[in-house]
């Protein structure tokens, strides 16, 4: 066999190994109920859950606890997933800025059965886009003031 064939086979083998390792580590999008079921089966695989912050009757965010003076790296909130199943989420990092303004969010982590909460490693925010505005507003140009 030629050296070029051996090198090509080696490169193909490395590429296949990389593909297999990334597929094995990929996390999946689930709801809280499925994340709980996976945790009961003993899996420690990371999951993505899409949802929104839970609001009470007056429109305030329910269950949000963040006291930076006590512990700046502990943030709790209640999230409702896309299947209307709610769960407490614990994030051991500071509260993300603009979390209150986000339409939807994605939490990445694992369900903690002992504490009956979802332990988030990451929080990804989907903020309202300024480009989704159906109504374009034209600003009036500033009028020049003449000094006489």
Automatic annotation (TrEMBL):
Its transmembrane ranges are none
Q: What is the lineage of its organism?
A: Bacteria, Pseudomonadati, Bacteroidota, Cytophagia, Cytophagales
Q: Name one GO cellular component term.
A: plasma membrane
Compartment(s): Membrane
**Protein name as annotated:** Cytochrome c maturation protein CcmE
What processes in GO biological process is this protein linked to? cytochrome complex assembly; protein-heme linkage
Taking the record's annotation, the residue ranges forming a coiled coil are: none
Among the GO molecular function terms of this UniProt record, one is: heme binding
Name the InterPro entries on file. Answer: CcmE (IPR004329), CcmE-like_sf (IPR036127), NA-bd_OB-fold (IPR012340)
Q: Which UniProt keywords apply?
A: Cytochrome c-type biogenesis, Heme, Iron, Membrane, Metal-binding
| Pfam families for this protein | CcmE (PF03100)
């Amino acid at each position: 066999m030629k050296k070029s064939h051996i090198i090509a086979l080696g490169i193909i083998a490395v590429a296949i190994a990389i593909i297999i390792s990334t597929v094995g580590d990929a996390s999946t999008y689930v709801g809280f109920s499925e994340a709980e079921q996976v945790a009961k089966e003993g899996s420690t695989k990371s999951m993505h859950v899409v949802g929104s912050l839970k609001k009470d009757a007056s429109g305030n965010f329910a269950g949000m606890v963040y006291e930076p003076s006590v512990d700046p790296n502990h943030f709790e909130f209640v999230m409702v997933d896309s299947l209307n199943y709610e769960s407490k989420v614990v994030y051991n990092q500071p509260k993300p800025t603009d979390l209150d303004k986000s339409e939807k969010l994605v939490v990445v982590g694992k369900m903690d059965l002992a504490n009956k909460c979802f332990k988030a490693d990451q929080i990804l925010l989907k903020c309202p886009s300024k480009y989704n505005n159906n109504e374009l507003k034209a600003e009036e140009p500033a009028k020049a003031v003449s000094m006489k």
